[in-house]
């Protein structure tokens, strides 16, 4: 056993992941498992119901969950650094509220969009700054952010405000025709663009590498001279921006601003990220996994609506069971490596 | 040290009470009526009782470096079980007993995930937080179940001079204080919070202790759920105890217990729960729209956290760099 110049296994990963000869790296296993679950749940649907396995049902999955995809993308960044952002659901509500209120008082649509995105990013920046500068737990800071955003909604208006702006209405009702007669909304296009941007940032930029490094071991990353502080604040800005963007998509979807929109959506986003294979302790996970996670949750929702019982409690129980299955799966994988 | 940590929360509570006296001069007035005490202070105590109870359970969980997000769902389940039992002609006491047994089982479940499978507490309890309300709705079949039982009503709305709800909460507080501060249990919990592995090697049954605190937290949540549902004589699976886990965690953190585990303060938690409830009452009495309470809560949380944070950070960083 002289460890001299043994050639590394062909095509082997260099980042400390184990793999059996001819197998896939273990870090991909959770994502693959998520994808298998997605295919399986979808398969169940197409066996049980006629017309389930159509392109439009898949497209509708994206249409109905575009905002959740964007939220999950932002949440993935935060969770990869080992943090958590509980404020996202409230920021979605606040964004719909700001958008509706600004449009009602006659602001142009582009200015409204800018203002909403800026508000979300600034709130994220503030939370990230407090987390980094004062070392307060992300859980508590974003919890305060959640209360603050939800409270600000009520300050703007207690009632639901409908959106009558022509540009917003055109965007909301406009569709993109895909080959095969499948139509999607502009919201889906925006969400997919956000996913692509996130994949680019995470895997092809210095910022993205540092996100993984901070999640792996913050002190090691700091000792290596990485800009851990900037990245830790940055992920909350990204999450705040994504929440605001998701809020805009949600306001297109609902065409109204309301303080009680998106209650509990932060949990859906966290569940999607976890089901998508990211570890809450940070450092492990992929944006694509989170997207498939959202699709799994969406498929369950669709299955239950096809069933026609409208018993939303089964959705919650099934999602809870799925969460459990995935954390146990990850536990098994982590233990083996 | 302990006194120092409790200084800011205590000052915050006093300040809040003073604001109330300025706004409503009759704030401290108490009156006896039919052998029961009434007044704003009593109201604060009664409305804050469920939060205080859950926060007590949460304090011990957080002291072991855990967190329990499922308490709100557990509270909803407790109310749902009892009301369903009473509505189908059962005895109120039997219903409550059933509910608490079920809550203990749910606590065992959380403890199993955390201590045996070694799953991060926040995610382990997220499972029950998500599924729990579904289970509660399954029990009530999605309906709001109203009941008419005098003995059940006593738990949340009854009086023995003081509201029974607050007497229960204070009794639990006293019990916890006695068992953790007069026996070694408190120290063992703290040692598990500092380093579970080291405690295990030193002969502490870390697993049993973690299991115990989750069961205790679930039982507290169950009793709180009974109070909430008995107060309105109804079980609402959707909104009973909604966000109460957040309030409870806030109460614990405002009270100076660190989320990093290892040390806790029961007095601090009591102060924290009182601050949260007084804040809510203040907003009501000051004539501000009740919906805006959330903004004030956010401001208070951040303020108290920042006041407590910097010193500890400087120390920790100094150690880390050396």
Automatic annotation (TrEMBL), chain A:
<keyword id="KW-0812">Transmembrane</keyword>
<feature type="transmembrane region" description="Helical">
    <location>
        <begin position="61"/>
        <end position="80"/>
    </location>
</feature>
<feature type="transmembrane region" description="Helical">
    <location>
        <begin position="110"/>
        <end position="132"/>
    </location>
</feature>
<dbReference type="InterPro" id="IPR001851">
    <property type="entry name" value="ABC_transp_permease"/>
</dbReference>
<keyword id="KW-1003">Cell membrane</keyword>
<keyword id="KW-0762">Sugar transport</keyword>
<feature type="transmembrane region" description="Helical">
    <location>
        <begin position="267"/>
        <end position="300"/>
    </location>
</feature>
<keyword id="KW-0813">Transport</keyword>
<protein>
    <submittedName>
        <fullName>Simple sugar transport system permease protein</fullName>
    </submittedName>
</protein>
<feature type="transmembrane region" description="Helical">
    <location>
        <begin position="138"/>
        <end position="158"/>
    </location>
</feature>
<dbReference type="Pfam" id="PF02653">
    <property type="entry name" value="BPD_transp_2"/>
</dbReference>
<feature type="transmembrane region" description="Helical">
    <location>
        <begin position="178"/>
        <end position="202"/>
    </location>
</feature>
<keyword id="KW-1133">Transmembrane helix</keyword>
<keyword id="KW-0472">Membrane</keyword>
<feature type="transmembrane region" description="Helical">
    <location>
        <begin position="312"/>
        <end position="334"/>
    </location>
</feature>
<feature type="region of interest" description="Disordered">
    <location>
        <begin position="1"/>
        <end position="22"/>
    </location>
</feature>
<feature type="transmembrane region" description="Helical">
    <location>
        <begin position="233"/>
        <end position="255"/>
    </location>
</feature>
<feature type="transmembrane region" description="Helical">
    <location>
        <begin position="28"/>
        <end position="49"/>
    </location>
</feature>
UniProtKB/TrEMBL annotation, chain B:
<keyword id="KW-1133">Transmembrane helix</keyword>
<keyword id="KW-0762">Sugar transport</keyword>
<dbReference type="InterPro" id="IPR001851">
    <property type="entry name" value="ABC_transp_permease"/>
</dbReference>
<feature type="transmembrane region" description="Helical">
    <location>
        <begin position="45"/>
        <end position="62"/>
    </location>
</feature>
<feature type="transmembrane region" description="Helical">
    <location>
        <begin position="240"/>
        <end position="261"/>
    </location>
</feature>
<dbReference type="Pfam" id="PF02653">
    <property type="entry name" value="BPD_transp_2"/>
</dbReference>
<feature type="transmembrane region" description="Helical">
    <location>
        <begin position="69"/>
        <end position="87"/>
    </location>
</feature>
<feature type="transmembrane region" description="Helical">
    <location>
        <begin position="121"/>
        <end position="139"/>
    </location>
</feature>
<keyword id="KW-0472">Membrane</keyword>
<keyword id="KW-0812">Transmembrane</keyword>
<feature type="transmembrane region" description="Helical">
    <location>
        <begin position="93"/>
        <end position="114"/>
    </location>
</feature>
<feature type="transmembrane region" description="Helical">
    <location>
        <begin position="294"/>
        <end position="313"/>
    </location>
</feature>
<feature type="transmembrane region" description="Helical">
    <location>
        <begin position="159"/>
        <end position="178"/>
    </location>
</feature>
<protein>
    <submittedName>
        <fullName>Simple sugar transport system permease protein</fullName>
    </submittedName>
</protein>
<feature type="transmembrane region" description="Helical">
    <location>
        <begin position="209"/>
        <end position="228"/>
    </location>
</feature>
<keyword id="KW-0813">Transport</keyword>
<keyword id="KW-1003">Cell membrane</keyword>
<feature type="transmembrane region" description="Helical">
    <location>
        <begin position="268"/>
        <end position="288"/>
    </location>
</feature>
């Amino acid at each position: 056993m002289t460890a001299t110049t043994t050639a590394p296994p062909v095509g082997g990963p260099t980042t400390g992941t184990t793999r059996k000869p001819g197998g896939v790296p273990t870090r991909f296993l959770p994502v693959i498992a998520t994808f298998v679950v997605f295919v399986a749940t979808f398969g169940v649907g197409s066996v049980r119901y006629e017309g389930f396995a159509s392109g439009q049902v898949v497209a509708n999955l994206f249409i109905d969950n575009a905002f959740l995809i964007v939220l999950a993308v932002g949440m993935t960044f935060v969770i990869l650094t080992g943090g958590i952002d509980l404020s996202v659901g409230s920021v979605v509500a606040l964004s719909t509220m700001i958008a509706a209120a600004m449009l009602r008082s006659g602001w142009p649509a582009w200015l409204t969009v800018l203002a909403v995105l800026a508000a979300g990013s600034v709130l994220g920046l503030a939370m990230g700054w407090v987390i980094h500068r004062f070392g307060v737990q992300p859980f508590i800071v974003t919890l305060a952010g959640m209360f603050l955003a939800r409270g600000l909604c009520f300050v703007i208006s207690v009632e639901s405000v409908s959106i009558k702006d022509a540009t917003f209405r055109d965007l909301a009702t406009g569709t993109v025709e895909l080959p095969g007669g499948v139509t999607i909304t502009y919201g889906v296009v925006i969400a997919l663009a956000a996913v692509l941007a996130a994949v680019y940032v995470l895997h092809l930029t210095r910022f993205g590498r540092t996100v993984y490094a901070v999640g792996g071991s913050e002190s090691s990353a700091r000792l290596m001279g990485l800009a851990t502080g900037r990245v830790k604040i940055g992920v909350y800005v990204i999450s705040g921006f994504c929440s605001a963007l998701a809020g805009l998509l949600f306001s297109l979807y609902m065409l109204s601003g309301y303080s009680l929109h998106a209650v509990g959506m932060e949990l859906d986003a966290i569940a999607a990220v976890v089901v998508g294979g990211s570890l809450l302790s940070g450092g492990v996970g992929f944006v694509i996994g989170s997207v498939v996670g959202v699709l799994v949750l969406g498929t369950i929702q669709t299955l239950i609506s096809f069933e026609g019982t409208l018993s939303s409690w089964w959705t919650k129980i099934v999602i809870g069971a799925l969460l459990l299955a995935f954390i146990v799966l990850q536990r098994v994988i982590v233990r083996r490596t | 040290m302990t006194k120092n940590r409790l200084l800011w929360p205590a000052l915050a509570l006093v300040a809040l009470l003073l604001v109330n006296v300025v706004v409503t001069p009759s704030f401290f007035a108490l009156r006896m009526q039919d052998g029961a005490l009434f007044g704003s202070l009593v109201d604060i105590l009664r409305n804050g009782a469920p939060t205080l109870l859950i926060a007590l359970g949460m304090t011990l969980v957080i002291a072991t470096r855990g967190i329990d997000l499922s308490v709100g769902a557990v509270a909803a389940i407790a109310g749902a079980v009892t009301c369903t039992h009473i509505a189908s002609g059962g005895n109120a006491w039997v219903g409550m007993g059933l509910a608490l047994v079920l809550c203990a089982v749910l606590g065992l479940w959380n403890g199993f995930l955390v201590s045996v499978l070694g799953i991060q507490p926040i995610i382990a309890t997220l499972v029950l937080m998500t599924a729990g309300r579904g289970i509660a709705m399954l029990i009530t079949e999605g309906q709001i179940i109203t009941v008419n039982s005098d003995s059940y009503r006593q738990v949340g709305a009854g009086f023995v001079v003081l509201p029974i709800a607050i007497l229960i909460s204070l009794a639990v507080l006293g019990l916890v204080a006695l068992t953790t501060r007069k026996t070694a249990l408190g120290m063992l919990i703290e040692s598990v919070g500092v380093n579970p592995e080291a405690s295990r090697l030193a002969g502490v049954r870390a697993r049993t202790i973690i299991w115990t605190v989750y069961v205790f937290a679930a039982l507290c949540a169950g009793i709180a759920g009974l109070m909430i549902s008995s107060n309105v004589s109804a079980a609402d699976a959707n909104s009973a105890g909604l966000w109460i886990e957040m309030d409870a965690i806030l109460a614990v953190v405002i009270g100076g217990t660190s989320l990093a585990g290892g040390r806790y303060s029961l007095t601090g938690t009591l102060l924290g729960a009182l601050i949260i409830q007084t804040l809510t009452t203040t907003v009501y009495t000051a004539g501000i729209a009740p919906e805006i309470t959330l903004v004030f809560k956010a401001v208070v949380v951040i303020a108290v956290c920042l006041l407590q944070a910097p010193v500890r950070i400087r120390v920790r960083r100094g150690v880390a760099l050396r």
